[in-house]
Amino acid sequence: MTARAADRARYDRATAHLDAPLALVDLDAFDANAEDLVRRAGGKPIRVASKSVRCRTLLERVLAKDGFAGIMSFTLAESLWLARSGFEDILLAYPSADRTAFAELAADPKLAAAVTVMVDDVSQLDLIDGARGEGREVIRVCLELDTALKLLGGRVRVGALRSPLHSPAQVADVARAVARRPGFKLVGIMAYEGHIAGVGDAVAGRPFRSRAIRLMQATARRELAERRAAVVRAVRAVAPDLEYVNGGGTGSVQHTAAEDAVTEIAAGSGLYVPRLFDNYTSFSGRPAALFAQPVVRRPGVGIVTVLGGGYPASGAAGPDRLPVPYLPEGLRYDPQEGPGEVQTPLLGSPADDLLIGDKVWFRHAKAGELCERFDVLHLVEGDAVTATVPTYRGEGRTFL
Question: I need a labelling partner for 323 at 20 to 30 A (CA). Which of 100, 123, 277, 355 fits?
Answer without folding.
Answer: 355
